[in-house]
Amino acid sequence: MSSIAEKVVAGDIRTVARLIRDIDDGMPEVREVLKELYPHTGNAYIIGITGSPGVGKSTLVDQMVGHLRQRDKTVGVLAVDPTSPFSGGAILGDRVRMQRHSMDPGVFIRSLATRGHFGGLTQSTRSAIDVLDAMGKDYVLVETVGVGQDEVDVVRSAHTTVIVVIPGMGDDIQAIKAGILEVGDIFLINKSDREGADKTVSDLRLMIEMDQKKYEEGGWKPPILKVEAVFDKGIDEFLEAVDQHAAYLAKTEGGLDFRGNRNKVREELREMVKARLLEEALDRLTKSGEFDRAVELIVEKKIDPYTACEDLVLPVSKQ
Amino acid sequence: MKQQKRRVRVMVAKPGLDGHDRGARIIARAYRDAGFEVVYTGLHQTPEEIVEAAIQEDVDMIGLSSLAGAHNYLFPAVVQLLRERGADDIVVCGGGIIPEDDVEKLKAAGVKAVFTPGTPLDQIVKWVEENVSPRS
Ligand code: B12
Ligand SMILES: Nc1nc2c(ncn2[C@@H]2O[C@H](COP(=O)(O)OP(=O)(O)OP(=O)(O)O)[C@@H](O)[C@H]2O)c(=O)[nH]1
Ligand SMILES: [Mg+2]
């Protein structure tokens, strides 16, 4: 093993932190390290937490970390915040709610920006999860704002996907229905200290029950739980639901091993191949000058973009 | 995993009991608008917490903000802890209500720059661009 992989497996914080940066920055060297780390992965339980901005995801993650630590479990956290489309910069503020754990050697917290990932946010986050898994964390919690498809895909690659809503989010629940209702394994009504929590529970229940097909096939029926993250209420019940979901998953193909489930492997590999092919092909076309030549030809009206695209892609794909 | 241009990552932290966070938030926003990734720690951080977070976040710089007068202890403590952790490649700068005499003392202690009230944001951003580069 390379010294980097060795240090990761030994839990060296600085090495892990730097490796995640290299993954995020798309440094090609990390591929070799990830290959070496792979045999050390597959032990962590991954929980994805998503929901609209401000519903209390970070506060919830903070409490989850607290409760998991009481159970003597080690925890890694990946908190994803949006990159500004204007500047490319980002304010990563999730950590504010979790800082009380920063001195705990059993906890590793990392903030990530969505950037405009070429290989997909899902891919780089997936690799970062592998790193935290290989460093020996029992749980990896991933927080994303559930707005874009990318962010939703990220939490979907977890063992348990948690959707957080708050009371009175009538319209938002409609929005959830369109996008992420299908991917929720557990629904939490956070801020249940506020009015309307019970109504939100029944609204959600109705919507989930319309998803009949899933249950007829003996699928998992997502529980809807009320919590108050900031007051540390309902967290144990929530973590019990996570345990139950884990027990359910253990009976499905591959059990808790992602890379033992054909559908999941197919999906992951497809994404990886797609990103790599695109990268290699574009790289070659750019370096050879063919790409820029095509741009010129289109601008000079000598060729249409459809033909140009074909001329570029067909020779590459035939190789 | 296309190689992207490395993004500058910085942390803005509020050490000690000082509750004035307006300046820190404004600085965080200015950094974001300059294209940096900014980890914000929130209020009431000990130097130990700041340094640990900076290492986990792999930032290139820590910006400390203090308006309550404890900078002479808190800022050098952060520099010292970074050294102890072998992480003194992380640049430290700071700002807030800091008397001129103290500015020199802080610089001697390893704080690379200090920005006092009224400093234009452009200047604060430009300093980072000229003095902090994403690690190779
Ligand atoms: C607004 C304010 C408050 C607000 C704070 C709101 C908030 N959430 O921030 C409130 C009303 C809550 C408050 C309370 C108190 N305040 Co007050 N407050 C101020 C005031 C008027 C303005 C501060 C401010 O927001 N400025 C605007 C921001 C943008 O400027 P800035 O923070 O200085 O930042 C600039 C630079 O310093 C620099 N900078 C700052 N941080 C950083 C960090 C980095 C990395 C970089 C690169 C640059 C940088 O860049 C910024 C842009 O140029 C100042 C007086 C003053 N004129 O500064 C007193 C002042 C800071 N407060 C003071 C005091 C004593 C208090 C109180 C203890 C009691 C009181 N007397 O009111 C409490 C304690 C609060 C607490 N828990 O700590 C004193 C501090 C004295 C001292 N240093 O010893 C001051 C100086 C007033 C005075 N002359 O007595 N305060
Ligand atoms: N009343 C009430 N407020 C809460 C509860 N949980 C969290 N909050 C508050 O909601 C606000 C947002 O909390 P965060 O944890 O930052 O929310 P978030 O979903 O992580 O926010 P983003 O990451 O910005 O999308 C904070 O002020 C919390 O204190 C709760 O159970 N009840
Ligand atoms: Mg958050």
Summarize the entry for a quick read.
By secondary structure, chain A is of the alpha/beta class. Chain A has helices at residues 3-9, 13-24, 30-37, 57-70, 121-134, 149-156, 170-179, 197-209, 212-216, 235-250, 262-287, 290-299, 305-318, and strands spanning 45-51, 75-81, 90-92, 107-113, 139-145, 160-165, 186-189, 224-226. Chain A has 2 domains: 42-256, Rossmann fold (3-Layer(aba) Sandwich), CATH 3.40.50; 269-318, no CATH class.
Number of helices of chain B: 5
Helix content of chain B: 40-55%
Low-confidence stretches of chain B: none
Alpha-beta content class of chain B: alpha/beta
What is the element string of chain A, with H for helices and E for strands?
Answer: HHHEHEEEHEHEHEHHEHHHH
Average residue pLDDT of chain B: 95
What CATH first level of the largest domain in chain A would be assigned? Alpha Beta
Overall 3D form of chain A: globular
CATH architecture label of the largest domain in chain A? 3-Layer(aba) Sandwich
Outline of chain B: globular
Strand order in space, largest sheet of chain A = 4-2-5-1-6-7-8
Query: Largest sheet of chain A, if any?
Result: 7 strands, parallel
Radius of gyration over C-alpha positions of chain A, nearest whole angstrom: 22 Å
- The tally of structural domains of chain A comes to 2
Describe the structure.
The complex is a heterodimer of chains A (319) and B (136). Chain A is of the alpha/beta class and 319 residues long. Chain A has 2 domains: 42-256, P-loop containing nucleotide triphosphate hydrolases (Rossmann fold), CATH 3.40.50; 269-318, no CATH class. Helix content of chain A is 49%, strand content 14%. Chain A has 13 helices and 8 strands. A 7-stranded parallel sheet of chain A has the order 4-2-5-1-6-7-8, sandwiched between helices. In chain A, helix 7 (170-179) links the parallel strand 6 and strand 7. The two termini of chain A are 33 Å apart. Chain B has a single domain (9-128), classed as 3-Layer(aba) Sandwich (Rossmann fold). The radius of gyration of chain B is 14 Å and the shape is globular. The two termini of chain B are 17 Å apart. In chain B, helix 2 (47-57) packs across helix 3 (71-84). Chain B is built from 5 helices and 5 strands. Chains A and B meet through helix 2, strand 3, strand 4 and helix 11 of A and helix 1, strand 2 and helix 2 of B. Strand 3 of chain A pairs parallel with strand 2 (37-40) of chain B, so a sheet runs across the interface. The complex binds cobalamin, guanosine-5'-triphosphate and magnesium ion.
